[in-house]
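User: Can you fold this complex?
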Amino acid sequence: MVTESAHEFETQDLLLNVGPQHPSTHGVFRMVMQVDGEVVRDIIPYIGYLHRGAEKLCETMDYRQGIGFMDRTEYLAAMNAELSYVMAVEKLAELEVPDRAQWIRMILVELNRLASHLMFMGAFGIDVGVFGTPFIYAWREREAIIDLFEEISGDRMMYAYLRPGGLAWDVPTNFVARCREVLTAVNQGIADFDGLLTKNEIFVARTQGIGYISAADAIDFGMSGPSIRASGVPLDVRREEPYLKYNEIKWDVITETDGDVYARYLCRLGEMRESVKIVEQCLEQLQPGAIMPEKMPRMLRTPPGEVYIRTEAPRGEFGVYMVSKGGNRPYRLKVRSACLSNLQALKHMSVGQYVADAIIVLGSIDIVLSEVDR
Amino acid sequence: MRGIAKSMMTTLSVFLRPPVTRDYPNVHKALPERDRAFPLLLWDQEIDEPFCTGCHACERACPVECMTVLMKDNPNHKSVGGTSSRRKIIDKFWIDYARCMRCNICVEVCNFDAIAMNNTWSGHEMSVHDRKDLVMDLQQLTTQSHSGQIKEWVPVLGKANEESAS
Amino acid sequence: MPEGLFGLNPWLDGLIRLLLIVGLMTVVAMGLIYIERKVLGRFHARVGPQRTGPFGLLQSVADALKLIGKEDLRPRNADPWTFEFGPYMVFIPIFMGFVVQPFMAGFGVRVLDLGILYFVAVSSVSIVGWVMAGWGSDNRYAMIGGMRAAAQAISYELPFVLSLLSVSMLAGTLNINEIVLAQWQVPNIVWQPLAFVIFFIAALAELNRPPFDIPVGESEVVGGPFVEYSGIRWSMFFLGEYASLFIMSVLISALFLGGYEWPFGTQLGIGFQLLLTVVKAAILIFLIIWVRASVPRLRIDQLMGYAWKILLPLSLVQVLVNGFVLVYHLPLPVLTVAGVGGIVLLSWLTERAIRKPRAARASAIALQSEAAS
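Assistant: Here's the predicted assembly.
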């Protein structure tokens, strides 16, 4: 038993401030690490640097205006964020979405999941220390997806394309062919990432066994998305409560059992492959038809009520809780952000690891700060 | 070290492929028709006046309140011997591009199809030294449509493509 | 003592040669920065610098001008002497390493009989500068970076020196030029493939190149010891980094690839010899850049474990095998076979050492529970 007096010198842990301006904090996240040499003893995260009051803003906006703020809530997967919002409004207003609109929504959401996961691969590769290569590879394929979104909606990040009831306007006529082109590019990108990282001994050494979280702990922390599926919990809202048309096509929930950083990486890689499959099946199902319900009022008003809608965004469960007291705007809007919940586990996962590991654990949760702070 | 060898072969295969860089300021990629930059006012070439009647619909619908609209009686109206059928017409119009979040709502609420999103590169390359220079007045907003520099795309809301519907 | 270049006093002659090489070196380092950016760009599916001059050739010049023109900042709490002299302590030893570099037959700055010893002694001094920069900056990132640099340099010095030793055993001399001349038939890489691999890995670590860029790791310690530097002092670090990249490539090409000697002999004239050396160095530099584009960064404990547990024993075995072969006059191809076997062993050990997920997870859980209690 070593007591304090047995040490010849009194040592003091170092407080290392990481962020809000640090290359690896994925935005403006700040954490203060208490390090003993290179080992992290404690982590105190500080959030709120990007707080914009988006929820409150949406309460002053009518339902159409709120969509734009949902884009900015999660800018890497704006379609997914919009989807939760418009589905909440649809459920409040009891709108029936036409089939074609649902299939197109599914394609767009899955493509956006691909774009977001590509972004993860790139940023995570940089965190692990490959100089720029995965980032540019990710950018290359993400660019193809974003170009497609630009042709459809007109904007590259803030689409404002999904509307309560369906879509704002129809997709271009060459949509299917363009989607297939994009999928080819993305497949190449996935192959590149697979070759670059998956088997690389250094990558494996850096990620395997790091940032372990058990299934029980992950559930306790309220994690969701690939972060919890990597711990062996097959929690996927698309399977639990199928929305859109997810129960009409064949796809698998990707789970890993290790619960470490490497498992989270593999999980996302597998999900990208699944997303490609989903989009391919959706493209076959796509039929001509209406994209909005027959009788849409010019100004959407909802009856009083409250609703909670959750969808599977790339980072996990993106929920929208909406209360309406009648009228054309929500009385209360609450966004359940997957990033915020996943971030809670950061300390649990990285205490006791090295400084370099704490960085990649943060990278493996794949946070988007605008979603954390809202 | 086989994994590292595989990584190195992957990077080598990328090395041998052509680079994907777009030489941006020299080569502009073709923008899609639906590209959304910033809102512009459209010009009625037949009567030679803006389509906009200053009805404040866009101003009210704008989520970020970046527009200011003033209307006036149309001096060119038929009742006073002019050629236009617009009783009221836009007098002053300001859009603060620094505030605009390009949500397209102003285009959607316009009853006269008088406003459209700029879908050319001139709408994207707008960096200025002073943010006051981003407040556009009526003259700046209508110039491009007046001189026919843009081919506007006004979305047909909620309607299926004719090709896909048939 | 070699003949003077222009029949001058040997001291004056040495000075002229040194100035020549230092001046040339700055240009070479700037060129290397450009080449690295271009080549790395292609590995990234980009094009690299292209705006400054034709094909961006003047990019390094523009960067150098910018760096010279920048304000030389010093944090208020920094230790002035350590902070200001850190860059020199990095820069000067690296350039001193040039003294023994064999570019052409008989034309280095000096041909020293203990050339390898000198190089090893001088090149490891620069780590003092790293620690000075890390300590003097009064920045916690810089300090962590400086400590990492020291730990890394100490670990990799040993396999580095031992693999040099195995080459000089074969040639029977510590004189780099004589080692080059001894390779007139077969370059050392054929007889000493394992030593080459170990030396290459250790050289990457000495140069702080990926996967061993732990002291400067941008994603963790944001540039490590350099984080507080700006302007001309920062550019000294940078210049030193690329100069040492070039030195190391020339040294590897001299020791393992036959330098200016193999495969054409020394009859072909000085210019051709220089070209041969530079081409061999260029291939090595390309290899180093290629590695940079492909591998993640190791962690500090993994890096040290790899040096002490795998590279060091293997390089000791290499020295031992060399000793047996040389003492008992066994045929030299035995060395090749042993070396290739050693590389296979190294590869297997690397894969085995790195894949221990269960144990790693157990230790992580132990750490977690320790932290929780």
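The longest strand of chain A covers residues 305-313. Chain A has one domain: 4-373.
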